[in-house]
Amino acid sequence: MAISNKKALTLKTLTKGNVWDVQENDIIRMWETGSKDSDFKDSANHYREIIKTAFTVEDIKVDTPEVLKKYEDRGFKIGTIRISDKESQRFAIKKKPIQRVTDLTYENINHISASKLLEVIERNFGGGWESLSQSIQDIIEHGFDISTTTLPTTMLKKKGGMYEKKLDDGYEVLEIPKGTWTEAIFAKEKPRVERVHTVFDPDAEDEEKRRLEDEDSDEDLPDIPDNYNEDDDDDDDAFDDDKLTEESYRTTVDTNPEDLDLSAADVADDEEF
Prior knowledge:
Distance between the termini: 28 Å
Strand order of the largest sheet: 1-3-2
Order of helices and strands: HHEHEEHHEHEEH
Number of strands: 6
Helix content: 25-40%
Number of helices: 7
Strand content: 15-25%
Largest sheet: 3 strands, antiparallel
Region (Disordered): 199-273
């Protein structure tokens, strides 16, 4: 999920969210460029903690061709930190893979595709959506619209049914066989929402406080009648338990085939919740 038309990231603009947008060579470039700044040493640990959100970083203690080759064989890229005019430090860096559902976080869920997500779910022992913990489901639904259905395999792709409609609507699908039935998990990426960061200006805030204090001192406050203790005889707006309706929610339909008589009538698609 690459981001286009954006200003190039630097160490100072990296966050635990956007660090997933870059690759090893990008971090090496940022680190080598940032190490020339006068305040680099004071902020280096902060930058490193952000980078470690998405990357494995190791300092190279023994800088020899043999050691560097071992790192490269393990998929690491090699970079250099400038410590002083006469001293530098090599480091190895590798992007953390997202292979298991436990690798998913709120920071990286918006940085993988729907097909990648379903690939990760498929590795979860083939248990389907309900086999995922509630916390993992919450993370996934933070970045994706998810729908599920479980039907007899012969009915899953019925023309005009849920399966066909979801594919037409741009969803990716994962099929999980369950005997003569199949669970289908549909996933579609939610639009990325850009967050606007406000720069805090303490001088402006102090000036606003002074202005409000001046206004308060120049104006007399009106009398406000106290109506809180009056009896309210109007029961039209009173809370009524009978008016409550059950909150709608989505669930996976998973029915024991032995409990159904499929021969009695055609099996229709499950409703999408």
